Amino acid sequence: MADTKPGLRKPAFTKVDQLRPGTSGHNVTVKIVSTKMVLQKGRSEGPQARQMRISECVVGDETGVVVFTARNDQVDLMKEGITVTLRNAKIDIYKGSMRLAVDKWGRIEATEPASFKVKEDTNMSLVEYELVNVVE
């Protein structure tokens, strides 16, 4: 057998204004505008010391902003003002609005500060979506 490895593809990066509900596999470089802890519960001592933390962060690029839901260890990475690359991110719908999330198959990486200015007046999470069943 020959020792040939398949070549890795370069990731295709998406802009915030191109995100749509129900899609996944997005690679996005965004700047963190703000962060807010929304849930922190669990036990801190004992044999099953598990703590659940959820934080909502407003992240964006030069095309717009979207709410990113950070869970558990991701909360520590999301600091206001830094630039991160979200790999294999997905779009969830929560109470009718879009939320960007990275699950166990994705990755969050801190990168060098971005040169773009975040366009905060185009918030993709403010657009309400409704599930419509089409009967043929």
Structural account:
With 136 residues, the chain is an all-beta fold. It has one helix spanning 74-77, and strands at residues 24-42, 51-61, 64-71, 83-94, 97-101, 107-110. Strands 1-2-3-5-4 form a five-stranded mixed beta barrel. A hairpin with a 2-residue loop joins strand 2 (51-61) and strand 3. The longest helix is centred in the middle third of the chain and has 4 residues, at 74-77.
Keywords:
1 helix; mainly beta; 6 strands; single chain; 136 residues; five-stranded mixed beta barrel
Say what oligomer this is.
Answer: single chain
SS element count, helices: 1
CA-CA gap between termini: 53 Å
Low-confidence blocks of residues:
none
Radius of gyration: 17 Å
Q: How many E-type strands? A: 6
Strand content: 35-45%
Coarse structural class: mainly beta
Summarize the structure.
The chain has 136 residues and is mostly beta strands. Helices cover 3% and strands 43% of the residues. A five-stranded mixed barrel has the order 1-2-3-5-4.
How are the SSEs placed, and which strands pair?
Blueprint (H helix, E strand, L loop, with lengths): L23 E19 L8 E11 L2 E8 L2 H4 L5 E12 L2 E5 L5 E4 L26
Parallel strand pairs: 3-5
Antiparallel strand pairs: 1-2, 1-4, 2-3, 4-5, 4-6
